[in-house]
């Protein structure tokens, strides 16, 4: 991942230093487990626990000879020990260490992402409550439809974030697992008790069955959830971008002192953060596809997934962390232009109340078809001339005769569209 899109905490997790630290943690946990079941003498275990270490330069040097990163690692570790080195990697295959250690790092990344999701959710909740009753025009197909509230927009995203949090917690349980089951997963050279002890020490669950590798549907499901999180971020970003357009101007990203919008046009204030996360969300979805391709391995394993995962797992977790933080900051600095909101509500001269008129005529005894066909030509005149919809309706004797001038005027009250907002909010623990 480019440093530009990776925050320091996540960068540390996916560093080579942390990679080998987690490999060593796994190797030590295995030695401790072998000691627990009575296979390795306590003295040898304690020497390995206290003295085993690695040097990345030496690993690189040995890998040039062995062309095998795990062998280069275990030989480097052995060089830091005495005769007890014979127990390093005892009964294991490479992926016992690699997959289990990778799950440790995924768990560490997940701690960050879950916190990010909660912070993001709290910001949406704050905005939902703050703008609960601020009426804005709703749009379907990009066209003015009926009034809604800005708070309901944020509440809908808050709800979606709660689903993402719940899904993420579930997928964490699936992906944060280890396997210490040997070359093809049969426990021929290492008993299940060792696996259980290792995973307990490392804070991981135990995968119920594996081959030489953890099943890759686990990783595909995990990547799917990361892509869903990214897609929600893009959904919100797209709405902000659309509402920041000059002719709408209802929402704007904050603009810092000294910030520039365009190298050519000094007046520009562009939604750069929303555009940025929209693009990165697309990358996330592409990496999800790769994770699905990784499910299909030959027999008990091949390594076609390995090279891909060295890219997509650090990338995806780093991107989710980055875009959640960036969009949270956008929400914290969001500018709400209430004057533009009011102007846009009035832009169609009352047409946003057309369904309310339609239903009132039906309640007065008209057929739906008759009411619709009577109202629609009037709405077309409003589109063409800009004359007030209410004024044209008041000139229609048949409509006025059915529902009366006073009631007709009351049908243009925005508060009608707020009457169930409290009930919607009551569905949430806010």
UniProtKB/TrEMBL annotation:
Keyword Methyltransferase in annotation: no
The reaction(s) this protein catalyses:
(2S)-2-[5-amino-1-(5-phospho-beta-D-ribosyl)imidazole-4-carboxamido]succinate = 5-amino-1-(5-phospho-beta-D-ribosyl)imidazole-4-carboxamide + fumarate; N(6)-(1,2-dicarboxyethyl)-AMP = fumarate + AMP
Check the record and name the InterPro entries matching this protein: AdenyloSucc_lyase_C, Fumarase/histidase_N, Fumarate_lyase_CS, Fumarate_lyase_fam, Fumarate_lyase_N, L-Aspartase-like, Pur_lyase
Kindly list the GO CC terms recorded for this protein. Answer: cytosol
Using the UniProt record, name the top-level EC class of this enzyme in a single word: lyase
Q: In which pathway does it act?
A: Purine metabolism; AMP biosynthesis via de novo pathway; AMP from IMP: step 2/2; Purine metabolism; IMP biosynthesis via de novo pathway; 5-amino-1-(5-phospho-D-ribosyl)imidazole-4-carboxamide from 5-amino-1-(5-phospho-D-ribosyl)imidazole-4-carboxylate: step 2/2
Which UniProt key words apply to this protein?
Lyase, Purine biosynthesis
GO process terms (BP): 'de novo' AMP biosynthetic process; 'de novo' IMP biosynthetic process
> What Gene3D superfamilies does the entry give?
Fumarase/aspartase (C-terminal domain), Fumarase/aspartase (Central domain), Fumarase/aspartase (N-terminal domain)
Q: What is its EC number?
A: 4.3.2.2
Tree of life domain:
Bacteria
| Limits of the Adenylosuccinate lyase C-terminal domain | 349-429
Q: Which GO terms describe its molecular function?
A: (S)-2-(5-amino-1-(5-phospho-D-ribosyl)imidazole-4-carboxamido) succinate lyase (fumarate-forming) activity; N6-(1,2-dicarboxyethyl)AMP AMP-lyase (fumarate-forming) activity
What the record says about family reads: Belongs to the lyase 1 family. Adenylosuccinate lyase subfamily.
Its name, as the record gives it, is Adenylosuccinate lyase
